[in-house]
Amino acid sequence: MPEPTARLDECSTPDYRGLFGWPVRWQGGAPVLVTGSGIGAVLVPRSLSDQVLYSLSRQGCAGPALSVPTRRGSVVLLLVEADAPAFDLQPLPDGVRVLTAGTTIPLPDERRPDDLSHWIVEPDTHQRWLPSLAAVLTCIRSAGRVPLDFALTYPPHRRAG
Length: 161
Known about the structure:
About 20% of the residues lie in helices and about 25% in strands.
């Protein structure tokens, strides 16, 4: 099978299903990702997101992350590989949630000027794997150990421009 060559910045709405194999459907004229079938998401409050993204990058677990508006402000959603359950007795930080299967996540759509969702860390067509749910949860728990001022001044995670 030929390697996908389209880049995210070459078209207004990438073929997420074709490029990454994600379960995407159209809802209300916009693309949404549906969790389940091996792909999941972890919701992180914006107040923790810089520390979490730094921790993920530092541990080699960085994957696609998007900012999504909610009624209470924006949150960051981390896409994860969810084929294996992640059991752990340690609680997650306040506000962090693993989204259930069947949750729809609005994907950025540049054709819609009212779309406020945007990539913080864009999916990479050359690295199409997603970090495991267990690894991401471990990094989230350890993110509190990184001094906030260091995480904010030296974020090695890729930011969408």
